[in-house]
Write a structure and sequence with these properties.
Layout (H helix, E strand, L loop, with lengths): L1 H7 L3 H19 L5 H12 L9 H18 L7 H13 L2 H22 L6 H68 L4 H26 L8 H4 L8 H10 L4 E6 L7 H21 L6 E7 L3 E8 L12 H11 L6 E4 L5 E8 L4 H4 L1
Parallel strand pairs: 1-2
Antiparallel strand pairs: 2-3, 3-5, 4-5
Length: 369
């Protein structure tokens, strides 16, 4: 493991320089002195271009092919011909299929010429088959490397897109909810400032507290993106336990809210509890924003071994509190879908509006269903 970590820290240029250095060292130490100048020159022409193979794979491939042809013309058979396979691998790992097939064809022509010239005792098929297998292996390794890098890039891009969507949902829920509450409290303070200054003061103090809470929630949600943000560690994300505070906040803002939590929730994962909190928060915010004064809301949470059911209803008019294309219902559906749930939002038969979903967080029969 230590050797692997050490190797992974080496710059790519070091690895690209290693093969030319080894090949030149082999020629300098093993070749007869009479043939040494020509061997060194051809080896350098074959191997040195590989130092730039990552930056210019096709020009490097062309330079290596030219050097290999010069080797064939001169009639010197060098081990540096492996450079041709490395150049082919690089083309396959960085270029399209059409370009890769063209490079394979060029190398195969070289294999034919090499076998015609250097095959012993007239044996052609055996060395040609061996060279062809080597060429195909180099090309396949390059193609697989390109496919792997493309897949990893797609995974990274998908992860980035999902993280952006998560942050967008979080910011929408935090900003929309807290601004709606602050607007409602401010309106209440304006109406009460002459008749009941004490209530107006209390409402404005609640506005201040709501603003501070909004800033804390934003730091908490964005803190995972910063290594120097301590708030994310000190303040866990809200869950079912914080629904009492949410309901009290909505009551202060002018929306009478009744909360009923059935069953224990300590076993429910924090991510699922956050989803429940955000679903209830969004539903109550929509009711506060889009229903007339006097509307009442009821929140019922049913916690089971592997599921949690969320029902938010109100007594407002039987019309949609949000447009179907708005971010509210869309965000709720995206959050619920992460736990296999489907949000049902619409007018209730007896009047008012309702939001219902069931989240599945276990691995038992409920999750399979």
């Amino acid at each position: 493991m230590t050797e692997r970590r050490w190797a992974s820290r080496l710059p790519p240029a070091v690895w690209d320089s290693l093969l030319p250095a080894l090949l030149l060292l082999h020629v300098l130490t093993m070749w007869p002195p009479a043939e040494l100048p020509v061997a060194v020159a051809l080896t350098a022409a074959l191997a040195l271009p590989l130092m730039w193979r990552r930056r210019a794979p096709l020009p490097v491939f062309g330079a290596v092919v030219a050097a290999a042809f010069a080797e064939w013309v001169v009639g010197v058979q060098l081990p540096a011909a492996i450079a041709l396979l490395v150049a082919l691998y690089t083309v396959a790992a960085t270029s399209s299929r059409r370009v890769t097939l063209g490079a394979i064809t060029v190398v195969e022509i070289g294999a034919v010429l090499a076998c015609l010239r250097w095959a012993t005792d007239g044996a052609f098929l055996t060395p040609f088959a061996a060279l062809t297998a080597t060429v195909v292996a180099a090309a396949v390794l390059g193609v697989n490397d390109r496919a792997t890098r493309a897949y990893l890039q797609a995974v990274r891009e998908r992860a980035v897109a999902e993280e952006r969507a998560r942050i967008t949902r979080e910011m929408h829920d935090i900003v929309t909810h807290n601004l709606s509450v602050m607007v409602a409290l401010t309106d209440a303070a304006v109406h009460a400032q002459h008749r009941s200054p004490g209530k107006a003061t209390a409402a404005m103090l609640q506005v201040s507290e709501t603003g501070r809470q909004a800033l804390t929630d934003m730091r908490r949600s964005l803190g995972v993106l910063r290594t120097d943000e301590p708030d994310a560690a000190r303040h866990p994300l809200p869950g079912i336990a914080q629904l009492d505070t949410l309901a009290a906040q909505m009551r202060t803002a002018g929306l009478p809210t009744d909360l009923d939590v059935d069953g224990g929730y300590s076993h429910i994962p924090a991510t699922a509890q956050l989803t429940v909190y955000r679903l209830v928060q969004e539903a109550l915010t929509n009711t506060l924003k889009h229903t007339p004064t006097g509307t009442q809301a009821k929140v019922r949470i049913e916690c089971a071994a592997e599921t949690v059911t969320v029902d938010v209803t109100d007594t407002g008019p039987p019309t949609s509190p949000v447009t179907p294309t708005g971010h509210g219902i869309t965000g709720m559906r995206e959050r619920s879908a992460g736990f296999g749930g489907t949000v049902l939002a619409g007018p209730r038969p007896g009047g008012g509006w309702g939001v219902h979903t069931r989240l599945v967080f276990g691995d038992g029969p409920a999750a399979s269903a």
